[in-house]
């Protein structure tokens, strides 16, 4: 999955393409799936017993977890102290939902008796790591572009999010994991499938077609794979939400209130 990023104003624009991998579409996730009926899309957790509350697309029995559901789940687990900021489970918690699976530790979102597949649906540490890598690429791309024009993410006046996936994103949860910048929430705007809408409008208007060509000529493209700043920003973003807590002050304040604990690793024999 590629994320296309544009930073600019009415006079100039800089662009870049970030290779985020398939996690946002459910790829590379143990029980990942596309956003269809039965996909877990909403998640919350009850801190006293760490039991999950989930909802699925179409209200069907759970079948897997889609990209937006993965973001919401990881954010919820982080806010409840079930996972640490490096994406590892806190195995000291009094819950049978955290267990050791074939790919390391995992959390059971739905027991087999409750699912369409007749199997437990889980989220694993490998799944979480894949999501961290995907969100790190996107945030690092944004950081790199805004730095290239002499500003920071906190100074963005508006963030416009396009695409079908974007329409289902929960801004608060995306900020919690470090996917979107920690700025006032009213600066985010969702427009749905912007490319299809743009194609439709330009097919009916010569003036809009001319505008589209003018905008395209305003753009300067950055190749991130050859950019040292991008590499450094990417490594710094491989954390929930980020290694630099000042990048995400609201999230850092929330996490600072959690009880301090360290994930305990057990060896299987």
Automatic annotation (TrEMBL):
Domain RACo C-terminal: 1-251
InterPro entries per the UniProt record, alphabetical: Corrinoid_activation_enz (IPR052911), RACo_C (IPR027980)
Signal peptide interval: none
Name of protein: RACo C-terminal domain-containing protein
